[in-house]
Amino acid sequence: MQPEHFDSSRRQFLKTMAVAGAGLAVGGSALAQQGAAGAAPGKLKLGFDNFSIRAMNYKAPQLLDYAAAQKLDSVLISDLDAYESLDDAYLKNVRAKAQDLGITIHAGTWSICPTSKFFKNKWGTAEEHLALGIRVAKTLGSPVLRCVLGMADDRKTEGGIEARIADTVKVCRALRTQAVDAGVKIAIENHAGDMQAWELVTLIEAAGKDYVGATMDTGNATWTLEDPMEVLETLGPYTASTGLRDSMVWEYVDGAWVQWVATGDGLVDWKAFFQRFAVLCPGVPANFEVISGIPRNFPYLKESFWKTFPKARASDFARFVAMAKRGHQIQPPGRTSGKGEQEAQVADLEKSMKYCKEVLGLGQK
Q1: Is the dihedral of CA 264, 187, 88, 121 positive or negative?
Q2: Which of 48, 268, 276, 356 is buried most deeply by CB count within 10 Å?
Q3: Which residues 6+ apart lie within 8 Å of 227 measured at CB?
Q4: Are 289 and 50 in contact (CB under 8 A)?
C-alpha cells in the first residue's frame, strides 16, 4: 500500500527528521561515550520481572527459589495473582523467605486508571485496587508498588492520553496518605505504548514525586517511538523500579518495525546505559522483563499515524529514527505453547542474565 498524501508541512517535518536522525546516530554514540566516562556501574542488583517466565505459572515462593538458583538479587513480582494468598500471614512468610535468600522483592500490579481500556475491576475500584497493592507491598517489605496506567489504545480514547493521565493522578492523590505512611512509592510504568517518557513525568509531577515515581521499561519505550538511552535520561531521576528489555528496530517503506529480543541481541548499548543508570538511579535494582518476539510495525510515514501522538517531540522522534537506521530485520521466533513456551522463556531469561553478569558485570552474587 502506498503512503497517504502528505501536506507540505508534514513532508518537511519528516525530511527534517530523516536528516536529524542520521546526525543523531553519531550524536547518540557521543552521548554513550560521555555516559561511559561518568561513573562505573559497580555492582548493581540484578533480577527479573516474573512476566519473563509467565508460562511457568510460578507463585511467589517458586519465583524466589528460581532467583536464588540463578544467583540473582532481585525479583519484580508484577502481579497480585503470583501470591497464593493476600493475607498478611502468607505475605510475611514470603518476605521472610526473601530475606533468608538475600533477595529484594519489588511488588507490582496492573492498571490503576479507572478509565483505561486495560483496567479490570477484579480488585474493586481503582482506589481499592491501589490501596490493596500498597498494603501488599508494605507487608512484603517492598519499597515500591509497580503500577500501570494502561496501553496504547488509551491514546485513542476521548480526551487522549492526557485525560487518562489526569484520571490516574486523581487515584494516586486519593491514596497519598496511605502510600506515605506505608513507605511505599507508587512506581508507574511506561506500559505497552501508553505514555512517552515525558508524559509519564507530567503524571509524576502532577501527583507528587515525593510518593509517585517511575518503573522504567526500555522495551515499551520503543513502542512509543523513543530511544531507550533518551528515556533513561528523562525517567532516570524519577525511577524507583525497572522492567528492562532489549529491542531490534529497523526501517521499512512506511516507517519502522520493532521486535523485542533477549538482552544483548538488540540495539541498546547496555554498557553505556548502566554507566548512566548508576548515576541517575542509585540503589535501584536492574530488573529485566525479557520478552522475545511480538513484532510490531509503526507506519509513521503515514499521516494518520500521528493522530495518537499529536504532541510528539521532534528531537525524541529523531533519535528513534536514528535507532531504526542502525537496526536490521530479524525473523520473529516461532510460536510455541505448553512445554515449548516454558523452555523458550526460561532460555531467553537465562541467556539474558548470563549476558548481564558476564558482559556487563551486573549482580552482587
Answers
A1: negative
A2: 48
A3: 28, 221, 316, 319, 320, 322, 323
A4: no
Q: Cα separations (Å) of 8 from 13, 15, 83, 303?
A: 9, 10, 56, 12
Domain boundaries, the chain: 14-358
> What is the arrangement of strands in the sheet containing 255-261, beginning at the earlier edge strand?
246-252, 255-261, 293-298
Distance CA 219, CA 259 (A): 9
C-alpha grid cell for residue 231?
528515556
Sheet arrangement for strand 239-242: 239-242, 212-216, 185-189, 144-148, 104-111, 74-77, 46-49, 286-288
Neighbours of 126 (CB within 10 A): 24
In DSSP terms, 261 is beta-bridged to: 246
Assigned C-alpha cell, 263 = 538482552
Which residue in this structure is represented by grid cell 518537511? 12
Q: Which CATH architecture has domain 14-358?
A: Alpha-Beta Barrel (3.20)
Query: What contacts 98, CB < 8 A, 6 or more positions away?
Result: 64, 75, 104, 105, 140, 141
Give the separation between CA 179 and CA 193, rounded to whole angstroms.
26
pLDDT tens, residue order, the chain (365 aa): 333 333 444 444 444 444 444 444 434 433 333 333 334 445 999 999 999 999 999 999 999 999 999 999 999 999 999 999 999 999 999 999 999 999 999 999 999 999 999 999 999 999 999 999 999 999 999 999 999 999 999 999 999 999 999 999 999 999 999 999 999 999 999 999 999 999 999 999 999 999 999 999 999 999 999 999 999 999 999 999 999 999 999 999 999 999 999 999 999 999 999 999 999 999 999 999 999 989 999 999 999 999 999 998 999 999 999 999 999 999 988 767 788 999 999 999 999 999 999 999 999 99
Contacts of residue 122, Cβ cutoff 8 Å, sequence gap at least 6: none
User: What's the N-to-C CA distance of the chain in angstroms?
Assistant: 53
